[in-house]
Specification:
It is a single chain. With 187 residues, this protein is α/β, with parallel strands linked by helices. The chain has one domain (2-186): Glycosidases (TIM Barrel), CATH 3.20.20. The chain has 4 helices and 9 strands. The chain has an 8-stranded mixed beta barrel with strand order 1-2-4-5-6-7-8-9, surrounded by 4 helices. Strand 6 (112-117), helix 4 (119-126) and strand 7 form a beta-alpha-beta unit. Helix 2 runs parallel beside helix 3 (95-107). The mean pLDDT is 94.
Length: 187
């Protein structure tokens, strides 16, 4: 089992020492994460396997899915890193929005790793659609949201008949060097 974090500008200056992987935010809608390049450099220097994520916004929030993908690709520049789609917009995305994002990233030459979501959100906004159609599943499933040794986590969650996640975000309450961070495990 590998131990990792997902980070954005809110974890500016994060020390990746001791982590196996890092998932770094490129964009939130069309907002460019100002710390992306530094976080990527720091994670790579620490020896982490890296991938990226884009917080996908619903078009009703003011921008098209296509434009969001264009901006995310501009942030990526020439890096060949997989992209996770963060599917949890409070306004509510549609299944078509997610399909469009996957198609646009793929056409731009960006590998879509899969989707990040939680069971409640997915069921409410995506119905019974399988997240597996978009690649791997990165599942936010916090249980009682306590920080624990990843080796003590026990059985991996499979809510709503989801496939077993490739990445499991098991708490939002991690703290490393005084910085709050989401903690994840991957197989």
């Amino acid at each position: 089992m590998r131990f990792g974090v997902d980070v954005s500008e809110y974890q500016r200056g994060f020390d990746f020492t001791g982590f196996d992987f890092a998932i770094i935010r490129t964009t939130d809608g069309t907002y460019r994460d100002p710390c992306f390049e530094q976080l990527l450099l720091d994670a790579t220097t620490a020896g982490c396997v890296t991938s990226t994520y884009h917080f996908l916004r619903a078009p009703s929030e003011g921008t098209t899915v296509q434009r969001q993908v264009e901006v995310a690709c501009e942030v990526l520049v020439d890096t060949q890193l997989p992209m996770w789609l963060d599917v949890e917009s409070p306004v509510g995305l549609t299944l078509d929005d997610v399909h469009t994002a996957v198609e646009c990233f793929t056409q731009a030459g960006v590998e879509v790793a899969g989707v990040y979501t939680n069971a409640w959100y997915w069921r409410r906004h995506m119905g019974l659609a399988s997240p597996a159609q978009f690649g791997e599943l990165w599942l936010a499933h916090w249980g009682d949201n306590t920080v624990t040794d990843p080796a003590q986590l026990g059985k991996w969650p499979r809510p709503l008949g989801f496939p077993e996640p490739a990445v499991w975000q098991f708490t939002s309450r991690g703290r490393v060097g005084g910085i709050e961070v989401d903690l994840n495990v991957a197989r």
